[in-house]
Design brief:
0% strand, mainly alpha, 4 helices
Amino acid sequence: MIDWDRVEELRSEIGDEGFGEVVELFLEEVESVITRLGSAPDPARFEDDLHFLKGSAWNLGFAAFGARCQEGERKAAAGRAAEIDIAAILACYGASRKQFMARLQQVCSTGGRSAAA
């Protein structure tokens, strides 16, 4: 679900302080779109919203969530927005966020992937 190698690569590139800022910004920006998709989905915005979410997700290692967003983005681009399973995208984000946050402290404190990764 989470590409921990990508998480560690990003953290190494920008340092612990920068990484914390990126995570905070990611959560703020992504969750605003997630909230809108959950409360007021607008099929006319699906392609742009899912493109944004995909890029953000992959940048921070949310591999499964990024893949779901890519699938939805492609459907929206093909005029098939009605086929997009927004509930599944939201559920995947929730599960990914939960896993990420649960392991984030351990990954950062050990300087790399944990033995359980």
